[in-house]
Amino acid sequence: MTHPPYLYPGYKSTTLRAPGRELVMPGLGPDSIELTSPVFGHQELGRLDWDLTRQHPGEPLGERIIVTGRVLDTAGRPVRGALVEVWQANAAGRYLHAGDQHPAPLDPNFTGAGRCLTDDDGRYRFVTIKPGAYPWRNHHNAWRPAHIHFSVFGTAFTQRLVTQMYFPGDPLFAFDPIFQSIPDQRDRENLISRFDMDTTEPEWALGYQWDIVLGDTPMEDR
Fold first, then answer.
1. Minimal CA–CA distance to 1: which of 213, 162, 216, 190?
2. pTM above 0.85, yes or no
3. Dmax of the chain from CA atoms?
4. Known InterPro entries for this protein (predicted)?
């Protein structure tokens, strides 16, 4: 799997953030870092952190969805007890963030952030609202495809994957330089969830399946 380049001119902010020199490894070895880094425990999770539709007094606006899948290593073994975090825009395509000022409404019943721990089978599960597309001023008439940001932690802050999950059939894929910066078409497809009727719950929510394979899921580290 080939990750996106640090510098991808179509994604304009990489020209400001991409390193201009070779990376320097710290003198402290990774094993020593992991022994002294913070770790996570079950006590860090709230009762409704996994359900982004029930964190406020009222129902959020938009299409309710279930997003679930497994976190696996490259050998296909489940990664148990991993902290999975998500954050996303609301149904109108706006984040609850001071930096997002585009003219779309905020939803008082939707914060757009959640987290859970994987179970013994490596499975995570979130209930949320399908996010909307939004403009991002990277180029003329630039719009991001609908997506959910994912963060997967190991046992320490030094063990973290940050990536994005997209939805099938989005017409904006061809126009999005972040998505297109991934060189291999198969790797791009690894970021697209699949609609799943077995996950879908009647008269309540559509279901999407998306597995995260550590080492094979493209990282958002630019």
1. 216
2. yes
3. 56
4. Intradiol_dOase_C (IPR000627), Intradiol_dOase_core (IPR015889), Intradiol_RC_Dioxygenase (IPR050770), PCDO_beta_N (IPR024756), Protocat_dOase_b (IPR012785)
pLDDT digits (tens, 9 = 90+) for 84-124: 999 999 999 999 999 999 999 999 999 999 999 999 999 99
Residue 75: left if φ>0, alpha if ψ -120 to 50, beta else—which one? Answer: alpha
Q: Are 14 and 138 in contact (CB under 8 A)?
A: no
| Contact indicator for 111, 131 with CB cutoff of 8 Å | no
Of the pLDDT bands very low, low, confident and very high (cuts 50, 70, 90), residue 222 is very low
Pull the structure tokens for residue 115. Answer: 């987290």
Residue 186: half-sphere exposure toward Cβ, Cα within 13 Å: 3
Residue 87 sits at φ, ψ, to 5 deg, of -150, 150
Give the DSSP H/E element, type plus range, for residue 65.
Answer: strand 64-72
Helix, strand or coil, per DSSP, at residue 14: helix
Catalytic positions, written as ranges: 95, 134, 144, 147, 149
Indicate the DSSP class of residue 192. B
Q: List pLDDT tens digits, range 91-101.
A: 999 999 999 99
* For the chain, percent of residues with pLDDT exceeding 90: 68
Q: How far is CA 74 from CA 77, 79, 156, 167, in A?
A: 7, 10, 20, 23
The amino acid present at 210, given as its one-letter code, is W
Nearest-angstrom CA–CA distance, 102 and 147: 17
Residue 177 near residue 183, CB atoms below 8 Å: no
Q: For position 54, what pLDDT does the model report?
A: 96
Q: According to the model, what pLDDT value does residue 160 have?
A: 83
